[in-house]
Design brief:
With 91 residues, the chain is an alpha+beta fold. The protein has helices at 29-41, 59-62, 78-90, and strands at residues 21-26, 46-49, 69-73. It has a single domain, classed as Alpha-Beta Plaits, CATH 3.30.70. The protein starts with 20 loop residues before the first strand and ends with a helix. The relative contact order is 0.24.
Length: 91
């Protein structure tokens, strides 16, 4: 998984409060790209789940039945990330 540093505990032994926080879900590659760009620009580390590329393009990850693509951030960055995403909704 992401956010792993050499001195960090393994995923199995880390506290639940250290677990990545889901901040955004979409089946649209455009929406995911925009949110990724904004979060990275704000120096927020992200992890995107279900961002799959196949011989058929992004079909699998864009399928609503597959749950779409999900953006996770560190718990410490969750509030900032949600503010950025909320600001994008207003535009």
């Amino acid at each position: 998984m992401f956010f792993k540093k050499k001195d960090q505990k393994s995923q199995e032994t880390r506290a639940p409060s250290d677990a990545p926080v889901l901040v955004f879900t979409s089946v649209s590659m455009g929406e995911i790209a925009l949110v990724k760009s904004m979060l990275i620009s704000a120096d927020i580390d992200i992890h995107v789940e279900n961002e799959l590329t196949t011989g058929y393009g992004q079909i699998i990850s864009q399928c609503p039945a597959a749950g779409g693509m999900k953006i996770f951030v560190r718990p410490a960055d969750a509030d900032d990330a949600l503010e950025i995403i909320k600001a994008l909704d207003k535009e």
